[in-house]
Amino acid sequence: MEQIIDKYFRPGRLPHIWCPGCGNGIITGAIVKAVDKLALEKNDVAVVSGIGCSSRASGYLDFNTVHSAHGRALPVATGVKLGQPRLKVIVVTGDGDATAIGGNHFIHAARRNIDLTVVLFNNNIYGMTGGQYSPLTPANSKATTAPYGTVDRPFDVTELAKGAGATFVARSTTFHTQLLVDVIAQGIQHEGFSLIEAITACPISFGRQNKMGGAPDMMKWQKDRGVMLAAYEKMTDEQKEGKFPIGVLYKTEAPEYSAEYDKVIARVQKGAK
Amino acid sequence: MSKVYLMQGNQAVAEGAIAAGVKFFGGYPITPSTEVAESLAKMLPTVGGKFIQMEDEIAGIGVIIGASLTGMKVMTATSGPGFSLKQELIGYACIAEIPMVIVNVQRVGPSTGQPTAPAQGDVMQARWGTHGDHPIIALTPGSVPECFDLTIKAYEFSEKYRTPVILLLDEIIGHMREKIELPDNYDEIAKPQRKLPQVPPEEYKAYQADADLVPAMAPFGSGYRWHVTGLVHDEYGFPNGSPAATQKCLDRLHEKINNNLDDIVLYENYCMDDAETVVIAYGGTARSAYAAVDAARAKGIKAGLFRPITMWPFPAKQIAEIAGKAKHIIVAEMNYGQYVIEVERAVAGKAPVTLHAKYNSEAITPDELLARIESLK
Ligand code: SF4
Predict the structure, then answer these.
(1) Please, what's the b/e burial string for B332-342 (b: 16 or more CB within 10 A of its CB; e: otherwise)?
(2) Is the pTM here over 0.95, yes or no?
(3) End position of a domain, from candidates B127, B159, B188
(4) Last residue of some domain: B188, B210, B238?
(5) pLDDT averaged over consecutive 10-residue blocks of chain B (377 residues)?
(6) Ligand 1 centroid vs A100 CA: distance in angstroms?
């Protein structure tokens, strides 16, 4: 890990700002391991983040990086991809960032099937602002803005992405780190819109309010609930209760937006109709 | 070789963008600016550029921020309500120093107002729409040919000062058809260039300014890796919220503009040499003002027109000079009174300032203005 830190993290930018026990470092580590596994040139990778705990990751990473505005990582990343299609563009975003304020951009980027790899850090809460509920906060959870438990029903963000047109959808957790690295690498390689939901522990803003114990307990929670898709599919509805599938959940091929637009340019420049 | 066309202001903006070397447009349709997007959707692929219609106004500016980071000259176009939605990211582009041109074809407001009627209601929004302290450059064309020229000028300023520039049209100019002469080939038009780093990647600091206070900007993908943020940052682009770093960051943003007012502040003097009654008007309103000044002159009244082309930064020096000579100053604008506030501040009591405001969704006519000039003589 130390070698990887030296290679991909910016000198002098650590220590990071995340709380002790936070899973964000594990996901950020998984992103660089995926990049390393694919042996990508640092100059050929761009990381675009929104705003929130997760989105501070861009500042630590030695790529072309943007810490954009709350919810707006996807439009900015779309511009980077269209401007320089050669770049592998990874989007770092949180649950609130991607599915509340950025929800519209999320479904439309998926619909276009533009080649972006979205790593969605799902900590089920707004961490940076101190624990308000997000569209991915489980129903009946406590949050500072839901002191009596949330009434809102949460999204299943993987189903949302799939429904909107994403062509690669996966999920892992900060407990299942090998899998996390693997699905991020697959997402980067996939030509089209990839969503990787990375379930992470926020012991400070979510765990504490919901009496989930410390970071190790929250990791155990992930271990107990995350089930590989093949096994999950064989389970009865009763067995599925409280569990969720992990791994590559959905994969298909469809025309990729920036490549399709290049075809338009080629056609127009040839003077063809 | 050049050719003469009959063209709308909005189309001339699109032509100017192509002539300036724009390669990317992202936006969301909104009346009365849609012709800018429609024209560029057609033209951009022919020059190897890209057009994308985004899901909303915010995405429309977000996507051009991303494309600008890769070194492209970029544009978005909108109108008042869309302009409001873009404001957070306009501020982002100011602090992160990302060149771009934002076209705002103003309409009657607030809110949906009168989408197809002329107004000049976003004068203050162009200056103060975002959050916090930053300068802005906003240019206002007064004719279709000027739409073309000023669009190129907007890119010149945007690239030179590494800042967003607002092209503030009104519906009269945007939708008016007028004669325009355009070169057959835009190759002969100089393309504004962004300052590229002269140091190797290891030594590059994205926000270390040269003597002109403007830092060089390396395109993403060119081998220079750097960090962009909307947070107050140090010379590397990394967040640094210390009081000293904050002040330094904001001082430079202001000074890179304020030190160059002679370059940036553009205006036109019409019949101003001996003018006693000075009309200050801009955009579509200036068209009526020329006629009113001519009519007043025909009646022996020494009238003149000062037309700000650069709305912001405010031409304070020029207006203070006018105030020292004029007997009356009339500010004519299609709003309840916006630019007049700045004019009064610059005039500082040296001459009486009269507002000729109109905000009923109709243009100010030459006759109305003439009557106003006559009433003051
Ligand atoms: S608030 Fe939660 S998500 Fe944010 S850094 Fe702390 S533990 Fe991590």
Answers:
(1) bbbbeebbbeb
(2) yes
(3) B188
(4) B188
(5) 95 98 98 97 98 98 98 98 98 98 94 91 97 96 98 98 98 97 94 96 96 97 97 93 94 97 98 98 98 98 98 98 97 98 98 97 97 93
(6) 18
